[in-house]
Prior knowledge:
The protein is mainly β and 185 residues long. Helix content is 2%, strand content 37%. The chain contains 1 helix and 11 strands, in the order βββββαββββββ. The strands form 4 sheets. A 4-stranded antiparallel sheet has the order 4-5-9-8, with no helix packed on it. Strand 6 and strand 7 (115-119) form a beta hairpin. The longest helix is centred in the middle third of the chain and has 4 residues, at 93-96. The chain is globular.
Amino acid sequence: MAGVMVVAHHSTLLTYRDRAYRVECYYREDNNIVQTEMRVNSHPPASLASDPIALPSCQYKVETASNSSSEDSSPAIVTIGDSVVHVWTCGDPIHAKIYCMQVHSCVADDGGEEKFTVVDAEGCSTDSELLSAITYPTSLRAYARSRVFKFADKSDINFACQIRLMMLPNTANGTCPVSCFKLAI
């Protein structure tokens, strides 16, 4: 079967990646049962710090990709397709020894009724064309790269995210675990 498919990445958003493709489809099916076995030892409980430490405060900003290292690189006006970096930070070096963060449930909205989820509740990007997978260079810093997009007939776009703060697990990389697996179709 063959046909032409027009791909507009979103019904309400215009992006620089919208395209038309000629598609030929083939259908194959395979059904396998796979299994494995493993022995799991009990994990000893971790001890918690006895002195309470206040939760860190967090910040979210969008920086121009070319100036992301400068002091104030938050763009005022951008164009569809411009490269930007979404940056989330929490706390200070003392907090970084105790807590880790996970960015999740990010929504882009037009200031009215139009909303689009760009990061799901597990902390995974819903569309890598709009927002890359979130990278965690430290336990309390995260960033994701993006090309500017907008809602049709709107000049402003707003972003809101939730940040989950957790006790830092005893992992090799010192960050909160995030698992984002998407099935290829």
